[in-house]
Design a protein that fits this description.
alpha/beta, Rossmann fold, elongated, P-loop_NTPase, ATP-binding protein
């Protein structure tokens, strides 16, 4: 058996079983708690709307964190409202300029939400199609009339202007979750849309693994797998091995660790050699080299 999950981002609002897959590594726990604090007064989204930007390097779990935040809001929406999650994370358009991308995102958002609205709201939206400056307020008005909030997961942003533009369009009853792995975007948004801004954009930061995160990740998934499956045969690994693995790698993302553990344990499961001595740093290093990942 393979105690480690596959490689797609976790999505607990769509797959509830993913809820217990989250291991508190790479600063994800304080980032999630920061999000909960920012949304403690749910009326903030209803009254003003909000954009939240998740930042961090590639593979650090930004998308999984956004999905976790969306699931939390859906489970506890503002009083008197329902939360509708719209996943636009795959709607990025490489090669398009920022304005065209933003226009596309708000068109897609209107498409995804139209089933919530009555005929009058739909006519209002149809008259404004193609112009995000008119579509966004119409969406906000229609959401308020339907007592809904839209929780929107956006594709990665690579230029600061895009996040700033989206923030300017976000209206009442809208919660937009954005992400970037580009440090210049994070820095520019912190300056332009920081606490001093009239409508500040909170930033949630995730990062590379600390030395203790390797063991924290492994022990979490061992415990989860035992709980769900009543045990299971697999080769164990020690805390010292995981610490050495992360320290030797130098800079390691949770995605890299996930790929390593999932791949190695799947190889063991496929070979029928689940029983055996503890896995060592050398075992993982050999797997890295053989699969052209290096360590």
């Amino acid at each position: 058996m393979n105690p480690f999950p596959g490689l797609e981002p976790l999505c607990p609002w769509e797959s509830p079983e993913h809820t217990d897959h989250y291991a508190e590594v790479d600063h994800s726990k304080p980032a999630f708690e920061e999000f909960q604090k920012a949304l403690a007064d749910g009326s903030r989204v209803v009254r003003h709307g909000l954009v939240v930007l998740t930042t961090g390097g590639s593979g650090c779990g930004k998308t999984s964190l956004m999905h976790r935040c969306a699931a939390w809001v859906k489970g506890a929406p503002p009083p008197g409202h329902a939360a509708q999650i719209v996943d636009l994370t795959r709607e990025g358009r490489s090669g398009w300029d920022s304005e065209r991308r933003v226009r596309h995102l708000f068109e897609r958002l209107a498409d995804e939400l139209e089933s919530l609205f009555d005929d009058d709201a739909m006519r209002m939206l149809d008259e404004r199609r193609g112009d995000p400056d008119r579509v966004a307020p119409a969406l906000s008005k229609a959401l308020r009339a339907a007592s809904e909030i839209a929780v929107v997961l956006l594709p990665p942003s690579e230029v600061p202007d895009e996040v700033v533009r989206i923030a300017g369009l976000t209206g009442k009853s809208m919660l937009l979750l954005a992400e970037t792995s580009v440090e210049q975007v994070a820095a520019a948004c912190a300056h332009t849309l920081g606490p001093a801004c009239a409508t500040p954009v909170p930033q949630l930061r995730v990062g590379e693994l600390a030395a203790e995160d390797g063991w924290r990740y492994v022990s979490h998934h061992f415990a989860r797998h035992r709980h769900r499956h009543g045990g299971g045969a697999w080769r164990d690994v020690t805390e010292d091995t995981m610490r050495t693995l992360v320290e030797k790698r130098g800079r390691m993302s949770v995605k890299e660790l996930q790929m390593l553990l999932h791949g190695k344990y799947q190889e063991i499961a496929d070979s029928g050699q689940a029983n055996g001595p503890d896995l060592t740093f050398e075992d993982f290093s050999e797997y890295y080299f053989r699969t052209a990942r290096g360590i």
